[in-house]
Amino acid sequence: MLILNNLFLDCAAKNFYFVKKDNMTSEIEEKIVKILRKCIDGALSRTKKNQVFRPFHEALLTKELVNASAFERSFSTSFGQGPVEEISGLVAQNNGFEVERQKQTLVNIYRGAQNEIERIISQLREGNTKPKWEDEVARVLAHGRGDTEVRRVISDLYLKKENREVFISIKTVKPNLDQTEIAKRDLLLLKAHNPDYETFFGLFYNPGGTERQFYNWSIPSKIFDMKRDPCVLIGKDYWDFLGGSGSYEELLKIFKEVGRETREQIVNM
Question: May I ask the CATH architecture of the domain 96-243?
């Protein structure tokens, strides 16, 4: 059962892309706590409102466990992508980045590159090729002549620091095939427009276990190599990329502090 202090499962990070100079500021911590409490209050309210008498469940599991299960489902729904995006932006902001959510970028790319992207997506979806990010980017960038066309890309999170521009597509930890395909297309479109853009597919925790190699949701693995592609960030890798080394653990501490209050509220429901 997923309780608040177990919300984020670990994922091994071999490299940290940004080095954080300072710990999270009290202002950023307070904003994160506010987001969590808002989600928790909403989940508690919905759980109480929709409480159903389950005598057999309670006899087998205890009333507290039944309430905790109902709360977890409600919390997971409300936490969703919006709060994850918002917290991600705050962690990156604490690390000195300019942050924009739902960033719109108009990309101007060669028609040949556009056609190559569609070929790559089609081949992956049909299982005719295996995903390999570096090779796919090279295939797209090989098309550097001819007519161009403009496409619009919406990135969940955009970060800028000095000359670095980072675009992240944030998805649920078990995305479906269509969601993953859209993300892959967007990342390749951005690279076709500007090869210097840093583009990533981000999952905020790993449902398979503590190591990236344990990621076991097979669906997105048709489109990305979830265990090896450098454009994929999962769990600890994701948070330490945004905020620098140690950000994942620091964020967990904030969740655990808020979780102490939450567990008491669930028990007293």
Answer: 3-Layer(aba) Sandwich (3.40)
